[in-house]
Amino acid sequence: MPRTYLVTGAASGIGAATTALLREQGHTVLAADLEDGDIRADLATAEGRAALAARARELTGGRLDAVVACAGLARFDPLTVRVNHFGAVATLDGVRPLLAAGSHPRALVVGSVDAVHPTDPAIVAAADAGDEPAAAAAARAAVDRGEGHLVYSSSKAAVSRWVRRAAPGDAWAGAGIALNAVAPGVVLTPLTRPLLDDPATRTLVERAVPMPLHGHARPEQLAPLVAWLTSPENSHVTGQIVFADGGADAVLRGDRAW
Ligand SMILES: NC(=O)c1ccc[n+]([C@@H]2O[C@H](COP(=O)([O-])OP(=O)(O)OC[C@H]3O[C@@H](n4cnc5c(N)ncnc54)[C@H](O)[C@@H]3O)[C@@H](O)[C@H]2O)c1
């Protein structure tokens, strides 16, 4: 059965590959991004988030079957937590009423294996509390003290925690909506290209995210997992952070977490 999807971050990388696969499968995809696609919205801002939900309602007539919150960035900047956590949560919350009216509704956020790396407790606590100004201030402080790399891991840890907390509740499981995250390792997209092009940072990335199975992924290799988790076939997987990381999480956390 053809379904209607909303994919954010659809102009590039994993979002673009997911959009292409879903369209190949015959589904309708509303592609959202900053400058491109069916819906143009800046998910770093309250106006952009509200516009995304309003436009999605308009374009779908109020019924959406699945959402993939993929928009994200990895800058050493508060913007990273604004988009990766608050933008993703606003996307999912914003279209939840449309999903509740959809068929076999599913929601997914693209997290990251980086969430298992050290994080900044102040950023994560503020995100947990839904306090965006405090999270942005904590991110600014991390950047200012030379720990800007913690902003990305913290944003992904926070959004993963949000998925764990929200998924089993009335608003999601109670409404029949599966809610999960996919946590990729290193994927070859414009987000990672600058890091991988420089031999020094490439070595750091390879050490931080060891991928014994098949090495770095192409975005097309992530898309089928995203498509399955958001399909009607996924009846019982919810509240999961599904690592699609070539074994990185197993290497980094061993048998301590599963
Ligand atoms: N590439 C990787 O190795 C990797 C690994 C783990 C997780 N991820 C996550 O996957 C997701 C997609 O990343 P990608 O690698 O495909 O990157 P990408 O840069 O190719 O695509 C990201 C897209 O998000 C959009 N975006 C950024 N800020 C936005 C905003 N404020 N409002 C709306 N759209 C915005 C960009 O315009 C872009 O089209 C991100 O959430 C990223 O953190 C990527």
TrEMBL record:
Family annotation (InterPro entries): NAD(P)-bd_dom_sf, SDR_fam
A Pfam family matched in the record: adh_short_C2
Keywords annotated in UniProt: Oxidoreductase
Keyword Oxidoreductase recorded: yes
Superkingdom classification of source: Bacteria
Protein family membership: Belongs to the short-chain dehydrogenases/reductases (SDR) family.
Protein name according to UniProt: SDR family oxidoreductase
